[in-house]
Amino acid sequence: MEIAIIAHDGKKADMVQFIMEHKQLLKAKGINLISTGTTGSKVEAAGLTVHRYLSGPLGGDAQIAARVAERKTGMVIFFRDPLEKHPHEPDIFMLMRLCDVYNVPLATNPATAALLIKSV
Fold first, then answer.
1. What H or E segment, with its residue span, contains residue 2?
2. R_g (Cα) of the chain, nearest Å
3. What b/e string do you get for 64-81 counting C-beta neighbours within 10 Å, with b at 16 or more?
4. By three-state DSSP, how is residue 103 classified?
5. Each residue's pLDDT tens digit, 1-58
6. Full-prediction pTM beyond 0.90?
7. Residue 55 — φ and ψ, nearest 5°?
8. What homologous superfamily is domain 2-118 in, according to CATH?
9. Catalytic residue (one of 9, 14, 61, 81)
């Protein structure tokens, strides 16, 4: 299974912590992680392998949305920062819409992500 991980700047530390807490489960289940560029580099620095796409504002969200539409990505964990504006909001909404269209589980906070990860 392929899981996409994305985090806005204010949530990147939360994402790294979340992934580290679930590292053994991810490895045991053979989960392939994909990510937008900067989030992926932070997770790699913590010792996990991640296939990185472009940074979100440079098209990474759109690249991951395409993988959802192609049915290659089976889950998206996107720790969004709802208190900040983001110049790439249209790409974010497209990704979220495609998760709904293709019935792909989407978590936007650690509590929901934990429930989804435990169901893998």
1. strand 2-7
2. 13
3. bbbbbbeeebbbbbbbbe
4. coil
5. 999 999 999 999 999 999 999 999 999 999 999 999 999 999 998 888 999 999 998 9
6. yes
7. -60, 150
8. Methylglyoxal synthase-like domain (3.40.50.1380)
9. 61
Residues 15 and 32: their CA atoms lie apart, in Å, by: 16
Residue 91 identity: D
Residue 61 among the catalytic residues: yes
Closest CA to 64 of 114, 2, 19: 2
Straight-line distance from the first to the last Cα atom of the chain, in angstroms, rounded to the nearest whole number: 9
Q: What is the secondary structure of 35-91 as a DSSP string? A: E-HHHHHHHHHTT---EE---GGGTHHHHHHHHHHTT---EEEEE--TTS--TTHHH
Give the count of beta carbons closer than 10 Å to the beta carbon of residue 22.
18
- pLDDT tens digits, 55-96: 998 999 999 999 999 999 999 999 998 888 777 788 899 999
Spatial contact of 43 and 73, defined as CB atoms under 8 Å apart = no
Contacts of 46 (CB under 8 A, 6+ apart): 16, 19, 20
